[in-house]
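Exercise 7. Predict the joint structure of the components listed below.
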Amino acid sequence: MNNKMILESIDEVLNRLDSISDEALQAKYENHKCGPVGRVFLESEEFIAFMMNQTLEEHLAPVNDSSYSQLIEINKNLIKPFKRVSVTNDDVYMLAV
Amino acid sequence: MFKGTHGTCSSNADSIRANGFRYSNVGLRGGGIYFWGYLLDDLEAYAKDLAIAWWRFAKKKGDYAKAASSRCSVIFADFKVETPDILDFEVRQVREQFIVYSQKVYDRIKGINPEQKISTIYDLFVSDVEDSLGKSFKMIHVKVQVPKTYKKVLPIDLMGQPSCYVIINLDCIEITRFEEFNDE
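Solution:
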């Protein structure tokens, strides 16, 4: 593979972009990389506030249960627009590192 | 040989020494592990100073507030990559194509956090090109601004912006040594 192939591939990418709808592009953006985890954007201060409501056990346990919704409710004023998705605490930890 | 330095606190360095680097999604040029890159050994001291400046910047931000030791540690590494494994944003045509890509997507996607949006556009671009090529890159080369905490030895007009290697495939990282520095 040489540089020419890379440049040609990028050209193909650019050409394809024109035929992608805004909705499809947004969905691609939303689902990029680590799936829903990367879409839970919390500012650092908000994240700390969010985390302060968790015990270590809660942090280590899966959070896709009812207690997670409660945590979200407790902190809803601290969190900017978010999308409710399935995440595990391991995933949240990755964002915090 | 592609080489780089990575500035962090001693606690993180100990973890890296024991377990290796862990992939991070956090970074303004997309996900990966960030190094100050260089080719010539003569530029090692420059790359080390940039790593220390980065550590100073991160410490000031409070990134190491919870670390057992916030002392500065610089990790030196070589990268087992060949030129075809690298997506080089500093090749003029690649940079211009990336600008066109950004122009086509930036206003069409709605992001909550502008920095996250920029980071994701880099990631999307890389993955789109990889899909088109049918091949994964191991490293991204991109120029970045010097940390604000960097004490310039020579004017920027002589040095230009420093090279940053964003390592996507962590298997190509060969750590050569760790060095520690006293807090400043």
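Discussion. The helical segments of chain A are 3-17, 22-30, 44-51, 56-60, 66-74, 89-96.
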